[in-house]
Specification:
Number of helices: 2
Shape: elongated
Distance between the termini: 50 Å
């Protein structure tokens, strides 16, 4: 547990410290930290949505095949 907290906690804590150094307000630093997180994870979110759409299209094909062979 300590290893995981060091790997995630130290970089995220440093990023939070930088956000506070820029804004000089805890509320603003939290908002800035959240916006930076959204920007960083946006490509992953888009990829997950594309995969979800692809899976839904495939699911219709699988259901069609299942109905034909039952």
């Amino acid at each position: 547990m300590n290893f995981v907290s060091q790997i995630l906690g130290i970089p995220l804590g440093f990023l939070m410290f930088l956000c506070f150094a820029v804004v000089r307000n805890y509320g603003g630093a939290i908002l800035l930290f959240a916006v930076i997180g959204k920007i960083i994870f946006f490509p992953l979110s888009v990829s997950a949505q594309k995969n979800s759409i692809r899976l839904r299209k495939l699911q219709f094909s699988v259901e069609d095949i299942r109905l034909r062979h039952d």
